[in-house]
Amino acid sequence: MQPRYGHCGVRCFLVSYGIWYSLYFLTPDHGGGPGTSFSTVLTGFLIFLVMVIAIAIIMTWVFNHTQGSVFIASVLHTSINTPVVVWIPLFRPVNETTLDLANLIAFGVPALLIMIMTRGRLGYQPRQE
After folding, report:
1. Are 100 and 51 in contact (CB under 8 A)?
2. What percent of the chain has pLDDT over 90?
3. pLDDT for 53-110, tens place per residue?
4. Could you tell me if 77 and 25 are in contact, meaning their C-beta atoms sit under 8 angstroms apart?
5. What distance in Å separates the CA atoms of residue 120 and residue 27, rounded to the nearest whole number?
6. Using a CB cutoff of 8 Å and minimum separation of 24, what contacts does 53-56 make?
7. Spacing of C-alpha 14 from chain mean position
C-alpha cells in the first residue's frame, strides 16, 4: 500500500484501522453498549480510537523495519493482545476507559516519537530498482 498510495494513503488507512476496531469498543465488554451514557461513550471512544491509531503506527514502523515481515508484525500484535486477555480478567474492577488511557500513554508516546523521528514516513524506504 505504501508504494502505491504513499504516506497520505497510509494515514487514511490508520484512521480506517481505528474505525474498524471501534466496533469492538461499542460492545458491553469494552465499556460501550446499551445503558452507557453518551458522554462516557464519546470520551472512551476518543481515547480508544487514538490508542488504536498509536498501535497501528508502531506496528507499521515495525513492519517497515523488518523488511515487511508479516510474522514479526503478527508476533507484535499477539504480544499486545495476550496481556489484555490475561490481565483484564484478573483486574476486572478496573474501568475500561482507565485501562485504555494507560494504554494510550504507553503506546502514544512511542508512536509520537516514531512519527517525529521518521518525519511521518514510519521507516518506509522505497525499493531501488
Report:
1. yes
2. 0
3. 888 888 888 888 887 788 888 898 888 888 777 776 676 666 777 777 888 888 889 8
4. no
5. 32
6. 53/14, 53/15, 53/17, 53/18, 53/111, 54/104, 54/107, 54/108, 54/110, 54/111, 54/112, 55/80, 55/107, 55/111, 56/13, 56/14, 56/17, 56/18
7. 8
